[in-house]
Amino acid sequence: MGTRPLSDGIFFTCALPSYTMLKEDEIYRSMISWHAVASWTWDAQDETCGICRMAFDGCCPDCKLPGDDCPLIWGSCNHAFHLHCILKWVNSQTSQAHCPMCRREWQFKE
């Protein structure tokens, strides 16, 4: 494990991979250790917008209309978002828009 100072009192620690020579032209790498620093999961049945994280039955952060007055939009991947949230998301993408949840190419569900 390697440790090096980044600045006064702050150190960066990492586990370095080990290398084993198996053949003359092949090098295989094995991981010594791995430490997750964060974990994020999403319940597909959740009743909140995946972009603004507001409940669908609450107020949309853009139009301020209560639940049923702000339309929900589903993608072909079956993820649902507030209309205003997904339109902003799609328009902010520089290339082909992708679903913010599953990263599939975004298409509005017919």
Question: How would you describe this protein?
Answer:
With 110 residues, the chain is mostly beta strands. Helices cover 9% and strands 25% of the residues. It contains 1 helix and 6 strands; from the N terminus they run ββββββα. It has one helix spanning 83-92; strands spanning 2-7, 10-14, 18-23, 26-30, 72-74, 80-82. It has a two-stranded antiparallel ribbon. 10% of the residues are buried.
Which terms would index this structure?
single chain; two-stranded antiparallel ribbon; 25% strand; 1 helix; mainly beta
Outline type: elongated
Strand content: 25-35%
- Span between termini: 53 Å
Radius of gyration: 22 Å
In short:
The protein is mainly beta.
Secondary structure: elements and pairs:
Layout lengths: L1 E6 L2 E5 L3 E6 L2 E5 L41 E3 L5 E3 H10 L18
Antiparallel strand pairs: 1-2, 3-4, 5-6
